Amino acid sequence: MDxxxxxxxxxxxKHGVMPEENALGQKFVISIELFCDVRxxxxxxxxxxxxxxxxxxxFVTKKTQENTFQLIERLAEYLAQEILLHYEAVEKVSIEVxxxxxxxxLPLQTVAVSxxxxxxxxxxxxxxxxxxxxxxxxxxxxxLRQDSWTRVEKVxxxxxxAPVGGxxxxxxxxxxxxxxxxxxxxxxxxxxxxxxxxxxxxxxxxWGPRTVDLDILLYDQEIIHTESLTVPHIEMAxxxxxxxxxxxxxxxxKNPLNGCCMLEMKQQIQGREDS
Length: 275
What we know:
The chain is α+β, with helices and mostly antiparallel strands. The chain is about 35% helix and about 30% strand. It holds the Pfam family HPPK.
């Protein structure tokens, strides 16, 4: 990916743990790497197709000066998020914040913190089989849209499917959602948990009825297995109610575990059913 670099931007601001740092202020030196596609700008010599580095420098200066944080870790995190949210063309950003006047009373040149943050692509399965099922799904999608760190890119049609797992219950309404998010997988899991709780989701019976159910199917091409989260979703390749909506919005999105895309996995299930 192409990169625009802003090196050693000097900003006088008020950040630090010590009270005098917040009152008197000091110099901070900020370096920025903006990862974006500048090919068209290079071909046309038109700034419209790039990111204006002068504007970014002014933006970072303003954001640095209008806030007061104790830690430069917090400042770096904040600046990275603000840039990604404000500049749509920027896919990834690296920020280094240096504090050359850090009050450590030792002969050092500077202290610094570097962070790299980026947009991630995630896919969710959504389902409901209690009450106003369409209303529950629409409400969940709207809650995702309201999250400042998340962009809803695509929403599939909703399909009616029979329940699985052997529990007697009503049919489900199912769909899939494509997201762009600044959240980590764990933070995304926390968000969808909050959405489920806000819609009175209760986990009483395994595979039982629910007002709304949101599951992370894919997160970039990462393979994650922790106590609380497994990605790709363990049952994705075996569930037509997952694959059919996914084939509508992302037929060629791949399962990193087997290298198969959604369309291939759907065809595999259909082949088993026909044989």
